[in-house]
Structure formats: structure tokens, C-alpha cells
Specification:
Layout: E1 4-10, H1 19-32, E2 49-51, E3 60-68, H2 76-84, E4 91-98, E5 106-116, H3 122-132, E6 139-144, E7 147-152, E8 157-164, E9 169-176, H4 185-194, E10 202-212
Parallel strand pairs: 3-10
Antiparallel strand pairs: 1-3, 1-4, 2-3, 5-9, 5-10, 6-7, 8-9
Amino acid sequence: MDKLRLLFSKTGRAVYISHLDLMRTLTRAFLRAECRLKYSEGFNPHPQISIALPLSVGAESICEIMDFKLIEDKEPDEILAALSKQLPEGIEAISVYASERKVKELKWLKITGIFEYDERNAGNMAVKLNEFYAKDSIVISKKTKRGIGESDIKQAIKEIVFTDDGDNVILDAIVSAQEPTLNPQLLADALMQLNPEIAPDYAKFRRLEVYDENMSIFR
């Protein structure tokens, strides 16, 4: 198999590992698992691994995708078993399989989140959050490669709903993964910019699934 794909999760304490540290951690895990990665050629060779949609620090995911190549041919189940024994707490290898679809086909992310309010009522906040995100346009200021620009994040939201569990507000949404990319943290940042009275005191997010343009699960 020329290119293989790893489906893995990143939860618990592992959410505080940066993207670069995650790449180093996975590279070392492959080495300890005796699964020798292919390296690029040139003056600065590096392992041929790539994560489709790097997570922000602090975010959880149970559907991360990484492409890689090995020097020797190994069966996916063999790789999965060996790798699973070498990964640290919070990173779990779920499956290994042949990579047949291009990452550019990945379009939507299913996410969930928790908005915590220290003093405000969660039920009231859920109502106001649904009203806020029912708007036709939500334009915020965000950093770009060229500096600070404006972006209408509503165009990158396919579905969004807020409910309360008595203590916190629960977010469930489907947002654009690519072209445009919507970092879920912007859902909280937008509130800080445009309506701070309903912005959460703390927010955390988890990726649940990835889909293509037609909302079929992407693997």
C-alpha cells in the first residue's frame, strides 16, 4: 500500500499538546512500534505524515485523520495493534486503512461544545444564543495572513442549535471544514465581539465526525 490513513482520537490531557508536538509524538510512536515511516528527500528530510485538519490546542476530537507512508509493507491491522501499544494517554488509534479519498473532498465537521456561565442562567442563555445565530449574517473581525479582516461566519455554518442541561449550554453544529475553514472557537469569539452579554465565561469543543460535500462520512 502506497499511502495509509490513521483514524485517531485526541481527548483528555492530550488536548493540550500542540500540533507540532502531536506530530513528534506520533512519529516517535511509529518508531517504537517498529513501523518505519518514509522520509522526504533533500537537505532536511522529514517523515511523510500529514494531519488533515490540525486541531486547536484545547479542542477534543474522536475523528482525526492522518496520512502516512511506510518503508515496508505491513497489514493495517498489524500497524494498528503495534501503534496502539505506543501511544500516550489521550491519543487512541481507532483504525488504519488504505487512503483512497483526497483530503480536499473533506467539507463538513460535526461538532459539539459546552458553554459555561458562572452566574447567568443556562436556559436563558440557550434561548438568546439560538436567536443570535438565527441571523442571516454574522460578520466578525479575525486574523488573516494579511492582518485583520472581516468574515461572515454564518456562511460557514450549516446547522447550529443550543440547548441547556440545567448547568451549561450545549452546542451542536455542523460547520465548514475547508473553503472556508471555521474554527469552532470563533463561535464563542463572535459573541465576545458582537454580544458580550451572552458570551460564555468558558467554552470547549469536540469534533465528532467529518463529512464530504454530500454529508457522507469521510474516511
